Amino acid sequence: MRCDLSSANGFFKKKIDTDGNVHIYKARLVARGFRQIQGVDYDETFSPIVMLKSIRILLAIGVWQMDVKMAFLNGNLSEVVYMTQPEGFVDPQNARKQASRSWNLYFDEVVKGFGFIKNAEEPCVYKKVSGSALVFLVLYVGDILLIENDIPMLEAVKDSLRKSFSMKDLGEVAYILGIKIYRDRSKCLIGLSQSIYIDKVLKRFNMHDSKKGFLPMSPGMNLSKTQCPSTTDEQKRMSEIPYASAIRSIMYAMICTRPHDSFALSVTSRYQSCPGEGHWIAVKNILKTKGYTDAGFKTNKDDSRSQAGFISCLNGGAVSWKSSKQDTIGDSTTEAEYIAASEAAKEAVWIRNPLDLYCDNIDAIAQAKEPRSHQKSKHILRQYHLIREIIDRGDVNICKVHTDLN
Length: 406
Known about the structure:
The protein is an alpha+beta fold.
C-alpha cells in the first residue's frame, strides 16, 4: 500500500515564570502539519478555546491551576498517519492539523465520564455539582483551571484527572497566558498584570524611554480619513511604519487586562490599511499610557456613527468590556445610549448573573424599562428592543448613573 510519509521537525522552547525568568527548557518533536492536504490527511480541525473573559469571571471567584503534560499526545487520531521519527518516540501526533481537535474530543469524553457537564455557551467550561458542592473546570489547550466551594470535592476531581492524564499540580493560579495574577487577601483583592508583555511591546516599537501618558486618547482628538496619506512621499513614509503590528500588540493587552484602551484602539484600528501621521501619533499615545455603558453621539467624523462601549463588573472588578462603532446611525443621544445599553444587556445575559446595568441617559432608561412609541424613537431597530425582554425576565436591572461619574 502506498502512503504519504510526514516529515518531522524538532525545536526548543523556554518557559518563563511570573517574573519573566526562564524556569523550564523544553524540546519538542512535531509533525510538519503544514504539508497536510485537507480531505486526504485530515477532515475536521476545529477545537474550541476558552474566552479570556470567562477566565476573568472565574478568577473573580478563586482558582486552582493544573497542567496536562504533553496534552496533544493524549488524543487519538481518526486518520492513519505515517511519520518519520527518532528511535524510541511512540506517538507522533503533535502539530498535525487535527491534533488539537483530537485532544479536545478525548478530554471532553474523559471529564464527562466523571460527572462534569459542558457549558453550552462556553464549550471549554465544565461544571460538576454534588449536593451543595460545586466545581468548575476550565480548559485552555493543556492548562486546567479549577474553581470550587468544597475542598474535598476539589481533591477528588484532581485525583480523577491524575488517573486519566499525566498532570502537574501548580497550586493556586499565579500565571496564565502571559498574565500575572496578584492576590491581597487582607483586602479581598485580586489583580491581573501584563507588565512583562507590555515592556516587550514598548521595546519593540522603541517607546520604552518615551514620556509616559495619562490617557490612551487625548480629549477632543478626532481621527478621520482626511488624515490618510495624500502624496506618494507620505505613502512611502507611512509604509515603513509598523502601524498594524502595533495595533495587534496593543489589542492582545486590551483583550486581557486593559479595558481603558478599548475606545482608543477601536478608533485607531479603522485606519490600518492606510494610516496617516496623525493616526500613528494616536497609536503611540496608547503605547505611552501604562462596567458601565456609554455612547458618544456621532463620534465618527467619516460616517457620523456613534461609538458605544460597556464594562461588565463582577465582585468589583472588570471581567468583560467592549468599545466599538455602532452599526446604525443614531438620530439622537437617546438612541445611541439605548443601543449601547442593549448591547451591554446581551453581554450580561451571557454572564448569567442578575446584574445592574448603569446608563447616564434618562430617556434611554425609560425606553428600556417599558414599551413606548415616540416620534423620535419609533425607527429604532427591533433587535435593540431585546433589552426590554431581558429586563422583564429579571436578568438585568437598569439604573441611572450621573454623567460626571460615568
